[in-house]
Amino acid sequence: MERFKVGISRCLLGDKVRYDGMGKQDHYIKDTLGTFFEFVPVCPEVEYGLPVPREAMRLVTTSGGNPRLVTVRTAVDHTEGMKAWSEKKLDELARQGLRGFIFKSRSPSSGLQGVKLYSGKGPPSKRGVGIFAFAFTKRFPLIPVEDEGRLNDPAIRENFIERVFVFHRWLQFLENGGRAGDLVEFHSRHKLIILAHSPKTGTTLGRYIADSKKYGDTLNDLYVKTLMDGLSLMTTAKKNTNVLSHIMGYFKKYLSADEKRELLEILEAYRREIIPLIVPVTLLNHYVRKYDVPYLKKQYYLNPHPLELMLRNHA
Fold first, then answer.
1. pTM of the predicted model, to two decimals?
2. Separation between Cα atoms, residue 61 and residue 67, nearest integer Å
3. Would you place residue 312 in the very low, low, confident or very high pLDDT band (cuts 50, 70, 90)?
4. Four-residue CA torsion sign, 121, 124, 127, 130
5. CB–CB of 239/194 below 8 Å?
6. CB neighbours (10 Å) of residue 122?
7. In what side-by-side order are the strands of the sheet with 57-60?
8. For position 10, what pLDDT does the model report?
C-alpha cells in the first residue's frame, strides 16, 4: 500500500539530537510502522537553534500559571522563542498532509502529557505539556497524536493506529471532493468501527447523515469532529463482542448448528479476554468470503489496518 505521512519526534528514529547527544530509537516505530508510514521527523529544540549536546531544559510554572521552558542550570528562558518557532513550523507541517504525530514522552518541548512541571522547591507535578506538542494539538485538533511511551500499551497502540488510518481515509474522501453522497458511503464502511468505540457516536453521526441538508456546508466539519472524538474512546471486549455478534447475524441462514456453536464459543472466549480479537475476526472474515456478503466485505472493522502490524493479537 502507498505510505502516508506521519510526524514524529526525530530522536525516536535514532537521530542523535537529544540534549545529551544521544538518540532514543524505537524499533517498533522505525522498523514496523515505518513500513507503512512515511515519517516526517521534527526536533523542536535543534530546529529552534539549540546545539547538540545542550543544557537540559524543564517546564517551570509562573505566578501567571503559564509554563515556561527554562534551562535547568542557568535558568535561560526559551519559551517565547520556542513558541515563535513552533508557529512557523506548524505552517510548514500544515502543507505536509500529516495523518498523525508520535511525540517523545516526557519531553518539555514535545511531551503530550505527564511532563514534569516544576514550581518552587517542592517536587514537580506530572501535569505538564511540552511547548511544541501543546501548539501542535491546538493548531491541528483532528490529527491523531500519541506519546511514544504510551504506544507500549497494546490497546493504546491499536487505538492510535486505527485513528491514523481512519483519518487517512477521511483526507482521501476530502481530496476526492467530499461530496454528501460519498459521505454516506464513507459512513457506511466505517459504521462497525464507530460502534466498537462509541454506540452513542454512531447514533449521532447517523443523524447527521440523515439530516445532511439541514447542516449544509458545515456537515463535513461537524461529522469529522464527532467521528474523531468518538474514535478516541477505547474499544472494550464488551463493545467488540456486541459488534461481532451483529456481524454473526448476517450468517444465520448459512451456518450449520455446529458452526454457530463454534462461533458462539469463540465470541464468549474473546468476551472473557481468553483469546485475542484476531481469532473471531479471522473466522468471520472466512465466512464473509465464503458466503459473499457485500455489506460486510466493505466494512473496515474487519480489515482496519495491515495484518503485519499485529494490532489485534493481544488478549
1. 0.95
2. 5
3. very high
4. positive
5. no
6. 7
7. 68-71, 57-60, 115-118, 125-128
8. 97
